[in-house]
Amino acid sequence: MKHLKLATTAAVVLAAGIWLMQPEDPERTNPFDGEAQPLSTGILSPREGLTLALERRTPDGPSHVLLVTELQGDQISAVDLTAAGLTTKTDFFDVLTDVGIETLVDVAQADANDQFPVVQRSFGDLLPAAGTAARHVASGTNFPEHQEETGSESVFNFPKFGVATPPVTTVSTDADELLDYEVEICTRFDRDIERIEDFDAAQKGFFLCGDFSNRSVLTRLIDPDNFDSGTGFSDAKSGPERFPSGGLFVVPLDWESFVKTERLVTQVNDEIRQDARAGEMILSFRSLVEKALADTESTRFLYDDKQWQLVENGMIARDQVLMSGTAEGVIFMPPNMKQIVRGAMLYIVKGTFLTGQAPYDAVLENFLDEERASLRFLQPGHLVTHNSSNMGTISVVVQRAEN
C-alpha cells in the first residue's frame, strides 16, 4: 500500500509537471461576437451628414479639401472644394462655416458638371482626419466584453501622445515588443471644451482611428489592481506610428444615432479579429467628456518619465481628439494560472531567486518571453485593416524597426 501511495504521488507530480511545461496554444485568440452579415461600407447621404477629406498634395503645396460624394472600395469620389474656389480653408470646421452647410449639401447632391467636377482619389491620397495635434484623450475598457477580457472593472481615461498617421501607413515593431491593435471611433470638436455645455453646443466630427499598443511595456508598468493609476497606458500607446487615422471626417446631422449604428471591424491579413457597433460603448462621448473634465488637476499620468495631467488648461482643446476605447478581440490575454505557476516554478528551478530579481518580476518576464515566442502578436509583414460602415478604411503594414 505504501508503494502504491508513492507511485500515485509520483504520477500526480509527473502529470502536473508535464501539464505545466505544455506551452499555451499559439493560435489562441480572444473571442468576439461578430455579426453574420459582411460589413457594408459607404458614406452618409448629404441629408444625413457631410463627409470631408483633406487631400495629400506635394510637400510644399497647399492641401485641398474634398467634399466626398461616394465611396467604392478604397476609392472616393469627391468635389475638390479648394480647386472649385469655394474655400481657402483647410480646417474642416472652418470649411463648414466658410462655405455653409446648406451650400455643401447642395453641392454634394448636384450631378457632376463643369462647375463642380468630381475627382477620384484613393485612401492613400488622404491626410489623417485626426488633424495635427500631438496630445489626445484616450479611453480604456469602454466596451463591456473588452472590459471582461482584460479584467478591468471600470472605464478610465489617459493622455495619448503622438501625431496621427494617415489612413495608408506603416507601424514598426522590435524584438521586445508585443504589438497589439485596437479599432476605435474618434471625435473632434469645433471649439475648446471646458464645460459639458460646450460639448452640447459643439459641432462634432467623427472618424475611424486605430490605437497600437506595446503590451510588453504595458504589462511591466501597469498597476493590475488599478488601471486608472496613471501608469503604463500612455507609455505603451504613445509615440510615432501608434495612432493611425482614417481619412474621412464625418459630420452627421444626428451624431448620437450615427455613433449608435456605426460598425467597426479589424482584420489581420484576411482574418476578422474585431467586429462591434460603436453604440456598445459603456460611456457615451458625452459621458467621457464629463469624466475627463472632472479629472483635469491630477498629475498621476506617467509618460516618458514625467508626470502629466489628463488635459492642459482644464479643457479638451479644439484640435485634440477624444477616443472611444476599443471592443473585444484584441490579441492580449492576461497570464493564466498555469503561466503564473510555471513562472514561479522556473523562478526556483533556474535559480533566478539568487539574482535578487523579485518573484513578481520574474514571473512577469517569463510570461512576456512565452508570448513573444508564440508569435501571436503582430509580426513584420502583417496587414492590419480597420474598416467602418461610413468612415472609410485604415490600412497599416507592420514592419521591423530599423534599430
From TrEMBL:
SUPFAM superfamilies: FAH. InterPro entries: Fumarylacetoacetase-like_C, Fumarylacetoacetase_C_sf. Residues 136-398 form the Fumarylacetoacetase-like C-terminal domain. It comes from the Bacteria. GO terms for molecular function: catalytic activity. It comes from Octadecabacter antarcticus 307. Gene3D superfamilies: Fumarylacetoacetase-like, C-terminal domain (3.90.850.10). This is Fumarylacetoacetase-like C-terminal domain-containing protein.
